[in-house]
Amino acid sequence: MASHIILPPDDEEQRQRDEEEDGGQSASEHAPLPFSAMCVRISRDSYPNLRALRNASAVSLADAAYAKISEGDFGYVLDDVPHLADYLPDIPTYPNPLQDHPAYSTVKQYFVNEDDTVPQKVVVQKNSRRGVHFRRAGPRQRVYFESDEVKACIVTCGGLCPGLNTVIRELVCGLSHMYNVNKIYGIQNGYKGFYSSNYLAVTPKTVNDIHKRGGTVLGTSRGGHDTKKIVDNIQDRGINQVYIIGGDGTQKGAYEIYKEIRKRGLKVAVAGVPKTIDNDIAIIDKSFGFDSAVEEAQRAIDSAHVEACSAENGIGLVKLMGRYSGFIAMYATLASRDVDCCLIPESPFYMDGEGGLLQYIEKRLKENKHMVIVVAEGAGQDIIAKSIPSSDQQDASGNKLLLDIGLWLTHKIKILPT
Ligand SMILES: Nc1ncnc2c1ncn2[C@@H]1O[C@H](COP(=O)(O)OP(=O)(O)O)[C@@H](O)[C@H]1O
Ligand SMILES: O=P(O)(O)OC[C@H]1O[C@](O)(COP(=O)(O)O)[C@@H](O)[C@@H]1O
Fold this sequence. Notes:
Elements: H1 12-21, H2 48-54, H3 61-66, E1 68-71, E2 76-80, H4 84-87, E3 94-95, E4 117-119, E5 131-135, E6 142-143, E7 152-156, H5 164-178, E8 184-186, H6 193-196, E9 200-201, H7 227-236, E10 241-246, H8 248-264, E11 269-274, H9 290-310, E12 314-320, H10 327-336, E13 341-343, H11 357-368, E14 370-376, H12 381-387, H13 405-414
Helix pairs in contact: 7-8, 9-10
Adenosine-5'-diphosphate (ADP) is lined by residues 157-159, 190-191, 222-225, 246-250, 252-253, 256, 397-399.
């Protein structure tokens, strides 16, 4: 197997260093490499708040003002999350109900220390700066709501991902069994459900079996984010905890809701639960659903391999998810060992001439009489755009619609001389 996977550097500073070395060329503009080497580097979007600060003149200054960056000794940086106490400084706190829970009260040090933070980088050198840290998640000794006071709601937005129902179930059961909350509502069909549908009362009983089903029992949608209408409804219905499960688009929407809530001075906590099938979030170890997606991709690759082996010069072409991220394609490729070539959005390639994809295909067919190609759906968009005019069409959430790399490659391969 000779996989061709090259991802850009793994942090902002490295990216800047590379850009300087390249005379200002950005990582994504790196020249395509010929199909020979096997090289893997991983990059996930990082430092959201630091970026906001650095780009303060380019983006809104109001957004940059919400960024909570503090510095400590030896280059320690805390990139913190917004909190109710930022704009309600006198908000009272209460003992965490978990301390009376039979399963948790016996566990020493169950609660997370207020000051715990987690370093962004695990690998350091003797003299390196301590670097960026994030607030550690987990139950605190004191909480900001009394159980009886809580009126929580849960919404799922944007694209589907395996595990959504499991997350909904755990939120409902956790709130109910661990925090004694009994007013929990499901918002139907994404953001628009805040103002256009009934709120569904959910209990541990109603969500008991949902983790065995695919999709999201609450429904989801794209578009429909009307901040004012959403917050009006949250306020009118007395909701004070909002759990928002979704991808990057959804989290941008959650941030808008948070800003509006903060502007109105409401005691409403907004919690974003990151959902991405792509696993391209730097500040969590792994996103839920990613493993299932890679596992499912294996099945497609296995079948493509069987088909390719059964025909002389057979080529199995598997298109996988990944608009801007090659993690699913890359992990599935590395696990499979049957893939000859993996094309991902982060790594430019070219078709014709020395070191091009077509030459590589011919070489592999000569050597092996069959091959398997895995392609993430966002790969090669720049090349296709040269032969097919790319439209500016968008989905309801404003995401650009991609050109179909699968069909395009199939056509290119079919017209190869036999
Ligand atoms: N910049 C934004 N501001 C407010 N809402 C947004 C923004 N981007 C996306 N949304 C909303 O978030 C929801 C999900 O976004 P989408 O991009 O479809 O999926 P995902 O969250 O999976 O990336 C949609 O309802 C969309 O309207
Ligand atoms: O076909 P759709 O529904 O637009 O979604 C497909 C795309 O969504 C993504 O999985 C991203 O979604 P998430 O990161 O929010 O899970 C892309 O990588 C993928 O190609």
